[in-house]
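Figure caption, in words: inputs first, then the predicted bound structure.
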Amino acid sequence: MKKLLDQITQTMEGAFERLGFDKSYARVTVSNRPDLCEFQCNGAMALAKQAKKAPIDIAEQIASALAGNELFEEVQAVKPGFLNLKLAKTYLADYLREMEKGASNKHYGCERVAKPQTIMIDYGGPNVAKPLHVGHLRSAIIGESIKRMGIFLGNTMIGDVHLGDWGLQMGLIITELRERKPDLPYFNNAFAGEYPKEAPFTIAELEEIYPTASQKSKEDENYKERAMQATYELQNGNRGYHALWQHIIKVSVTDLKKNYKRLNVSFELWKGESDAQPYIPEMVRRMKDGGYAYISEGALVVDVKEETDTKEIPPCMILKSDGASLYNTTDLATIVQRMISYNPNEIIYVVDKRQELYFTQVFRCAKKTGIVNDDTKLYFLGFGTMNGKDGKPFKTREGGVMRLETLLTGIEDKMYEKIMANQNENQTMSEEEAREIAAQIALSAVKYGDLSNQASKDYIFDVDRFTSFEGNTGPYILYTIVRIKSILNKYVQAGHSTEGLCVGEAHSDSEKALQLELAKFNGVIESAFVELAPHRVCAYIYDLANALNHFYHETKILAEPDEALQQAYIALLDLTRGVLETCIDVLGFSAPNRM
Ligand code: ARG
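Bound structure (arginine present):
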């Protein structure tokens, strides 16, 4: 469906052209003075000089040319040369009826892209054996929502978790396990039999082992060397270490999947850094043969600076002087692998913005050395830090790293208490249902709290604010949806049906304002995806929820005696519910039926 704003602009362009004016001046925008009009065109002012006419004269000419046009209820020329527009109610209602037809496929008039792309999205980025903490939260939440937007618009989106499963952390765990359980067959080089199927540790142990080992390696040089040696041996075919490593991955991934599920986040691919290793030798050979890579201070590097750089971009290091690979090497080899397996049009990385320089190096190196074609887009979507109320990175009360599970459980408990406090004789919930709904609302609080901020900015994770049912929050959006569902329910319980009802011409300002908000929907996800900006979807649903609640407070709906009018109201509510639910689905959460 053509976007409302495009439709209006097109009509405006027609008027400009008929009067002999350049149509490029005919752009229409949503009014920034909603008290005066709904849309506006300021082109007459810009045109005045060229046309050698007073802006108000031009505006008046256009206003008369548009008099009687089916799109407008009012076209007003205002000094010094504004064109203030109000949409015709019949036109708006027709537009929404067209949108209603898209209810069955939940697209509500939003078109799919003309040329679907294959887009890989690298997000999540957890590290094996380290518990998911709030630092990983943003990547998962933002990445998932971008993936969903892309799918909604008809692209093929491939999400890859890109596990950190290959570095020194593996050697550290192996070393610590060896200290604790030296008799395990994995450490016996003479052992030729089959290794046990069961891992010799639980996830809880694993999560304790890693920080312990990491701490020890900082204090004990000898320990660190052993860990580096273990890493080297793991990467160079030590059979026992490899078997142990597989246990570590399996135990870790099982736990990670559980956590991501709770976040309503899922990945098409569970590839890790280790999967890229086989691609390294050939990649390095090509870089050398192509004359891109050279030895500098013992290390193999590729220059990536460009003339236009305003700050220094250091060379991209491909191999350390001892021949060991690095984070860079793995990321580059991963691109090789992705190009071979999926040949994507684009790869988007949703990673902490502090890694921006690093990705600049990697992307330039990949382009320069021909790992990707010129038309393959590599895009870094860097996000800011999630801070506590003190403005410092979010921590536990004791100052430690906050585990994701702990954070979510805390918020769920809070929501549960709120739900229970809301119980009365009209609403009684079983503990089980209340718990389920609490989890749903908690997720909306966390995700909306994050996504409503521009990704690149730091933000303050304010639990009290995020969990409030009022204001610009996830729970407020859910509350609005639940309010609609409850009205629709009562309508049905009174013996009516919601099937086949159509939106009607607006009868009040608040109804028209709601209709106008709804009519914007088909441009929202599109522009949010182009800009990779889920916060645009949040801003939209907040406006839409406000418009709905305003309408609700001003209008008798269930008590409306005029049946046709009531039906139109119900249709409007149902359309609002549908659009809101579609938007939150794209953001990665959902609404309960009551709360
Ligand atoms: N595991 C990394 C970290 O925790 C993030 C990975 C980001 N993705 C990538 N392709 N490098 O910092």
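The pocket of arginine is lined by residues 122, 125, 127, 162, 164, 331, 349, 351 (CB under 6 Å).
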